[in-house]
């Protein structure tokens, strides 16, 4: 059997591929995605690097994005929109998959539509609490729509919607590689803005790092956006710290998948954006968090996801710009870590689902 995987949310896609290769040894998996993040600069995407790393065939597809606003990019997207459908049709004709598993996004739409025209079963997964436009359209052609949050069911037809939770990477549960050696003399806080980093979070931490290091060890993943040069600036700040504080501050632009299990295993608290991947990874690892939602996320999805975490007693949410207020919240949260950890036991049945297993069982059931 051949399964074609595509879509914008690569982390849950990779988690499903990992599980599929473990359970279905004769399965042939093909991934359709973007090889380059920017066609002008030819920078390879995270999805291309990760898929090639695990030995999966990668087919690059260039398609136009769905946009709600008019701009120069809109005209460019109009040109690539039909080309994306033509390319998707040709890929499906060539690969002849038995099923398509989409994870939303603008690439998922042409693949799903062309698969429907070719009578190939389509399954799609919606990662966020409020579905994007692409997945709302894909669900019209899909045999089943999988959702990460039970609240999302209202957007899709009941008879073909299955609540699965969000697939998480196997790497987060074990220590594969240590990016550094850390002797845990103080509680550990892991600060991250996601793979690209978050300038807002970096600026908040920059203003309170000396105070944090008085009481905690800080692991800070900054991202590498050249426009802000946060990593370079924070390295200079670290180098000026007293030796005893400098040894407690671990900076990195990015952590690889093989390293994140170690980071989670030694962390006591995470300060992060409230993306769906982070939400479900921290839930799976039983890690309390302070979420700083992305202010302009679609439909305020990050604010809603952060609020769920807070309402369940698993952490806190912060939306301000005052670094002193954030420092006070961190201290208060650290003082109540035992309470947050205990609350994870009561939420397990509601949000912590074996997502990849449910998805694959549904696809491969006869």
Characterise the protein shown here.
This protein is of the alpha/beta class. The chain has two domains: 2-167, Glycogen Phosphorylase B (Rossmann fold); 172-351, Rossmann fold (3-Layer(aba) Sandwich). 45% of the residues lie in helices and 16% in strands. The strands form three sheets. A seven-stranded parallel β-sheet has the order 5-2-1-6-7-8-9, sandwiched between helices. A six-stranded parallel β-sheet has the order 12-11-10-13-14-15, sandwiched between helices. Helix 4 links the parallel strand 6 (99-102) and strand 7. The protein starts with a strand and ends with a helix. The mean pLDDT is 92.
Supply database-style keywords.
15 strands; 2 domains; six-stranded parallel sheet; 14 helices; single chain; Rossmann fold; 366 residues; alpha/beta; seven-stranded parallel sheet
Strand order in the largest sheet:
5-2-1-6-7-8-9
General form: globular
Determine the CATH superfamily of the largest domain.
Answer: Glycogen Phosphorylase B
What class, by secondary structure content? alpha/beta
Provide the succession of SSEs.
EHEEEHEHEHEHEEEHEHHEHEHEHEHHH
CATH class call of the largest domain: Alpha Beta
Offer a concise description of the structure.
The chain has 366 residues and is an alpha/beta fold. It has helices at 10-23, 46-53, 72-95, 105-117, 133-141, 199-213, 230-239, 243-246, 257-266, 276-285, 301-311, 323-335, 337-351, 355-364, and strands at 2-6, 28-33, 36-38, 43-44, 57-60, 99-102, 122-126, 144-147, 161-163, 188-192, 217-221, 249-252, 269-272, 289-291, 315-317.
């Amino acid at each position: 059997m051949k399964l074609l995987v595509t879509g914008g949310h690569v982390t849950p896609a990779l988690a499903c591929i990992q599980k599929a290769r473990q359970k279905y040894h004769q399965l042939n998996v093909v991934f359709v995605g973007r090889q380059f993040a920017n066609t002008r600069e030819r920078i390879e995407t995270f999805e291309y690097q990760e898929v090639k790393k695990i030995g999966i065939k990668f087919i690059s597809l260039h398609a136009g994005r769905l946009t709600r606003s008019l701009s120069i990019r809109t005209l460019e997207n109009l040109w690539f929109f039909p080309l994306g459908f033509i390319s998707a049709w040709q890929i499906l004709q060539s690969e002849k998959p038995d099923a398509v598993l989409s994870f939303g996004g603008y690439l998922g739409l042409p693949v799903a539509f062309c698969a429907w025209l070719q009578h190939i079963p389509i399954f799609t997964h919606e990662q966020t609490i409020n579905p994007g436009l692409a997945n709302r359209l894909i669900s019209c052609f899909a045999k089943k729509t999988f959702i990460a949050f039970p609240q999302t069911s209202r957007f899709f037809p009941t008879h073909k919607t299955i609540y699965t939770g969000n697939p998480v990477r196997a790497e987060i549960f074990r220590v594969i590689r240590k990016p550094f050696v850390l002797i845990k003399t103080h509680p550990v806080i892991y600060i991250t803005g996601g793979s690209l980093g978050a300038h807002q979070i970096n600026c908040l931490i920059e203003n309170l790092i000396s105070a944090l290091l008085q009481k905690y060890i800080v692991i800070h993943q900054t991202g590498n956006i050249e426009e802000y040069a946060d990593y370079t600036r924070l390295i200079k700040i670290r180098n000026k710290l007293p030796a005893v504080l400098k040894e407690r501050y671990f900076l990195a632009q990015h952590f690889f998948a093989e390293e994140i299990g170690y980071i989670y295993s030694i962390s006591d608290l995470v300060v992060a954006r409230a993306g769906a991947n982070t939400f479900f990874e921290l839930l799976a690892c039983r890690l309390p968090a302070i979420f700083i939602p992305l202010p302009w996320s679609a439909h305020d999805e990050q604010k809603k996801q952060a609020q769920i975490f807070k309402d369940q007693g698993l952490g806190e949410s912060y939306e301000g710009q005052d670094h002193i207020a954030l420092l006070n919240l961190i201290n208060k949260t650290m003082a109540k870590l035992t309470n947050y950890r205990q609350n994870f036991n009561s939420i397990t049945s509601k949000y912590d689902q074996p997502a990849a297993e449910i998805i694959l069982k549904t696809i491969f059931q006869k």
